[in-house]
Every structure is written in C-alpha cells, then in structure tokens.
Amino acid sequence: MDRIQDYFYIQTSHDCMIASLHCSDQYEEMGMFIDEQAIIYYLKENNIVFGIDYGSLQQVISAKDKNDFPIIVAQGLHVENGNDGYITYELNFSSEISKSPNWNFRDIMRIPSVHTGQKIATVTMPTAGKNGTDVNGNAIQALPGKPVQIKAGKNVVYHEKEHSFYAASEGQVSTNERYIEIHKVFKVNESLSMKNGNLDFVGSIIIHGDVPTGYTVKAKGDIKVFGMVEAATIIAGGSIFISEGLAGLQKGYIKAGENIHIGNINQGFAYAGNDLFVESSILHSECTAKNNVYCQKGNIIGGTLSVGISVEAKDIGNRMSTQTEIVFGMNKIIKEKEKQLVAKKEELEDTLKKLTVIGKKVESELDQNNPKTRITLLRQRNSYKKTADQLADIDGMLTQLNSYLGSEKEAKLVANGHLYPNVMVTFGKYKRKIDTAYKHVQMNLDQNEITVQAL
Description:
By secondary structure, this protein is α/β, with parallel strands linked by helices. It contains four helices and 40 strands. It has a 15-stranded mixed sheet that branches. Strand 12 and strand 13 form a beta hairpin. Helix 3 packs antiparallel against helix 4. It starts with 7 loop residues before the first strand and ends with a strand.
C-alpha cells in the first residue's frame, strides 16, 4: 500500500522556523490520492504543528511535477525582542561653538542652563517584546528591553507619571551615565579682584575676565574663565575651561576632576582627571592627564607630560633640542604620592607594633588600685585606635591611587608635525631618548620595545 512518506519528506531550517515539503524520486510514479487532511496528518506525525500554511497545502495537492517542489508548508512566528528604553533631552548640552571661517579662537564654549520647573528630558520606557513560536510549537521567549539607568541627581526631580526630569533650581545642567544634575552657577562679570576675593563654591563658577596672581578659585562643578589665568590656583570637581591660557610663572596650578580645555599653558602645572585639550602650545610646564592630551595645532616644548593613554600634538620638542619628557603609565605626581603613602604606612605599622608591646606590658602590670596605670592603659588604647584609623585611611588612598594607573601597552604618542631630538619618552619602565628628528610619526610600546612608526 502506498504511503505518503514514500513520495514526500520534510526539511526544517536550523532554527525550526520554516518547514518545507520535498518530493522524493518516486514522486512521478505516485498513484495514491492525497488531500489536505492527509498532508496535515503527515506534518503532525513529523511534529510540524504550528504556522501551517493551508494555501501551500493546496499547492502540494495541485502540483504537476517535481519542479514545483520544495514548497514551504509552515512558518513559525518570529520573536520580537523588547525595545530598550531611551532618554530624549529637551536641551542642547553641547558646549561647542560653531567654528565658521571667521571663528574667533577665544569663543570656545557655551553654557547649557535651565530655569526652575523647566523640563530637562523625557524617558521612553522599555517594551516587553512578543514571544515567538517555532513550527514544532515551542515557545521562543522574547528578551525585554533594558530600562534607562539615568536617575535624578542634585537639584533635579523625576515625575513618575510623565516619565520626565524637571529642574528644581536654576543652574547648569550636568549629565553622566548615572545622573542628571544641576550645578548652581556663580558668575563674576569682571576680572577677579579684592572686590570678590578667593572663591570656593558648591556649584559652577564663571569668570568674565582674568584670574590674577595669588588668587584661588575652587568649585565642585565646572570653572569657566573667559580670560587669562596667571600664577593662581584653579581647582574644579568637573571640567575647567580657560579661553586664553595659563601664564603660570612656575607657580600657577589648575586641577580638574574631568577635562581641561585651555588656549595654552606656559610655565604652569595642570592636572586633568580625564583629558587635556590645548588650543596652541604647552611650554616648560608639568602636566598630568589620566587619559589623553590633545595639542593638535601647537607644540609641546620643555617640561614633563604624564599621561595615561595618548598624546597628540603638532610638534614635540624644538630645533634647539630643549629637553622634553613624555611619561605614559604611572605619572610622576602619583608615583611620588605613592612613595609618600608607602613610607607613612610603614611608619604607622611600626608604631602599631610598639603600641602593642606597650599595651601588653601595661596590662601585665595593671594595678586596679593605682589610677596612673589605668590612665596609661587608656592612653595606649586611644593611641592604638587613632593609629589604626590612620593606617586604614592610608590603605584606602593607596587603593584609590591604583585606579590612576594607565596601561602603557596601549599608550601612544602622535606627532603630526615634528618630533625633535632630546625628547625623552617613557612607557612604564621602558625609556627612549630621541636622538634624531622625525616627521609625522607615532610611538608605541611593542613587545617591550619603544618603536617609532611613520603615520
């Protein structure tokens, strides 16, 4: 007796989302009659139970010859993964100025700000997605979308019903991967003087003028100076923007927890917790950046640069072979700080050992009727606790310093113009002194050897 499997066979795709019916070599000799129910029964015998295309079954029945095959007889329902949530900002957060042909290099930033009650951003919630099913009837679970991780920070409120962030105060908006915050801004519409004195502010500071020698400006947010900084001290928890530059006279110091954007640095000290951007030149200065230094249009002459990842400049050194040092990996400031902390830790550990010996001796000689011995023991225990607390603080600071270590194996030095002699380049423990001039080159650490390659 003829059987349908003598004339047909089923193939499914690797993901079991498509089932197709093929005919065998004996198909032309088929003498049996097949109908829709027979085909459905044959499909179910082969575990094809979902997504059967009944129109295709009629094509099988009405097929004339082998050329009509294969025929897709069932298709699964594809899974639709959920869409990730996303945030839409209502403000332009860019601090960049459009650099037209007539652009003035002093115009380097704009300040994004908000008013109380102003909408900052709207969150679109993630979707759950739709499950799929293969031709065998197996469920395919959809992956839900990921929610937005950004939360309301300082001076920002989140309205749950509207899924929106609103400003709770006036100020400058700051965003990162975790929070939206507003830093209240303190403005000085002239150069800093005795009329204002030193500044120490919890938000951001804008100075429409210069910062003369001797002044100190501190802010937990950003600091923006639309002028020159002389031998002054500028410290910001966020970024520092200085339109003109730092004329440090070997005393000026600027430190930013994030980026530094500046016109030039001359005989100054600079530290950037992220990147250092210099419009023109770095001259005879000591600069440190945790990640990158960009001085693409200017020169780096003299002094020392300590960098975590990369340095890119037009020229490094000069024709007069001025000694210039570029250090990748552990920078000099952190290295010196580490030495000091290690020395202090050893001193405290030695003190703890001595206090332990004293404590054991006092306890062995303790006379409850003698108040002097009891006071001595209390003093010893108090000293021990203070020393132990100081030691814990030192360990914490050493752990934090380790996070500032750069990977010299991934570091690079790029000179888009000239790399002059007497430039000392250090990648971790490896050093190389440039003894001949190069043009358009890049330096890397390759298999424990510092190499110079043409761009």
